[in-house]
Amino acid sequence: MTQADIVSRGHAIEFPILAEDPAKDFRPQAGQVGLYLTPGGPGVRMDSHLYPGYEIPSYYDSASRELCVWAPDRATAIARADAALRELLVDGVTTNIELHRAILANQVFIDGR
Q1: What is the average pLDDT across 60-83?
Q2: Regarding beta strands 27-28 and 55-56, do their DSSP bridges make them parallel or antiparallel, or are they unpaired?
Q3: Is 22 helix (H, G, I), strand (E, B) or coil?
Q4: What pairs with residue 14 in β-bridges?
Q5: What is the pLDDT averaged over residues 54-83?
Q6: Most exposed residue of 43, 48, 63, 92, measured as fewest CB within 10 angstroms of its CB?
Q7: DSSP-derived pairing of the beta strands 11-16 and 66-71
């Protein structure tokens, strides 16, 4: 197989979901997860070890939670990602979920610039 044999199909966006506070220089947030609801639907996958009651220690692995979204095209992937981020609930600790939503709504990002 060569590079010429590989065909691109669709568009994927991945979001690291971190227990950190973007408003405070992305300071890590330790604490206990209250409610935890993951998003679902076509092209949406959540990779995580979180559960209600999970204690995020101060030395946590920030790369252990990731939301992955796929769609046939970029605009649909962005729409699916926004819907999935709206559905995702990690209660009890501050996360970067709203930062991801703000990036998705930014015209520079939407335009792919």
Answers
A1: 89
A2: unpaired
A3: helix
A4: 68
A5: 88
A6: 63
A7: antiparallel
Q: Where are the beta strands (DSSP E) in the chain?
A: 11-16, 20-21, 27-28, 31-32, 36-37, 44-47, 55-56, 66-71, 89-90
Mean pLDDT of 42-56: 94
How many Å apart are CA 4 and CA 95, to the nearest integer? 41
- Cα separation, 112 vs 3, whole angstroms: 24
How far is Cα 83 from Cα 23, in angstroms, rounded to an integer?
A: 23
User: How many CB atoms lie under 10 A from the CB of residue 27?
Assistant: 10
CA 60 – CA 56 distance, rounded (Å): 6
Please give the model's pTM, rounded to 2 decimal places: 0.88
Alpha-carbon separation of residue 105 from 37, 83, 98 (angstroms): 23, 12, 11
User: What integer pLDDT is reported at residue 61 of this predicted model?
Assistant: 60
